Amino acid sequence: QVRLVESGGGLVQAGDSLRLSCTFPGRTFSSFALVWFRQTPGKERQLVASITSGGTTNYADSVKGRFTISRENARGTMYLQMDSLKPEDTAVYYCAASPVPYSEPRKYGYWGRGTQVTVSS
Question: Which of 14, 55, 82, 114 keeps 20 to 30 A from 90, CA to CA?
Answer without folding.
Answer: 55
